Amino acid sequence: MGRSITITLPEGTEEYAGDIWSFVNRMLVKLQANTHKGHWNEVDVLTALKGLEGEVKELEDAIYNEDADSVHREAADVANFAMILSSVLDRKLKENLFSEGAQLNLFESTPTLQWIDRVRHDLKYKYDDPHLREFESVVSDTQLYNLKRMLESVS
Ligand SMILES: [Mg+2]
Q1: What separation in Å is there between the alpha carbon of 25 and the centre of ligand 1?
Q2: How remote is the CA of residue 58 from the centroid of ligand 1, in Å?
């Protein structure tokens, strides 16, 4: 028998009790099915975001191609990844890696930082093109990060 938790519905949300009950139970079924993957303690924000995006795609696919049960299961996966992302943020706030209220540092993930550094280095030194050097000096880390994600999505 598992551990029980109690959720108190804030005033005005009582009418959602049935939906919340059903949905949280679906989340728990999927969490239990994935316990072999271990806790998400070591997951970073960008990895959680990627997982969430992957689950949104699976949900979309289920809506178009599969039955209602599959759609419910994928909706629960989306919620679980959103919860994981939120949980990762909580952990980082506790570790003071982010400060409350400050903008998130999305570049915490070392491979991402290394990739951005390598692209900057290549643009600066590898290609003897003044336009690329100019591009390197005006492009932001956020733009490079978005470029990386775009490249990953087509590879
Ligand atoms: Mg899924």
Answers
A1: 16
A2: 6
Number of helical H runs and strand E runs in the chain: 6, 0
- The Cα 17–Cα 14 span in angstroms is 5
CA distance 12 to 98: 33
Per domain, the residue ranges of the chain are 14-96, 110-154
115 vs 106: CA distance, rounded Å? 14
Residues less than 5 Å from ion ligand 1, measured at CB: 58, 74, 77
Could you tell me the distance, in angstroms and rounded to a whole number, from the CA of residue 76 to the centre of ligand 1?
8
Cβ-proximal residues to 108 (8 Å cutoff; 6+ apart), any chain: 44, 45, 46, 92, 97
107 contact partners, CB below 8 Å, separation of at least 6:
113, 116, 141, 145
pLDDT for 101 equals 59
For ligand 1, the distance from its centroid to the CA atom of residue 123, given in whole angstroms, is 38
Q: What is the pLDDT of residues 80-133, one digit of tens each?
A: 999 999 998 888 777 665 555 565 665 555 677 777 778 877 777 777 777 777
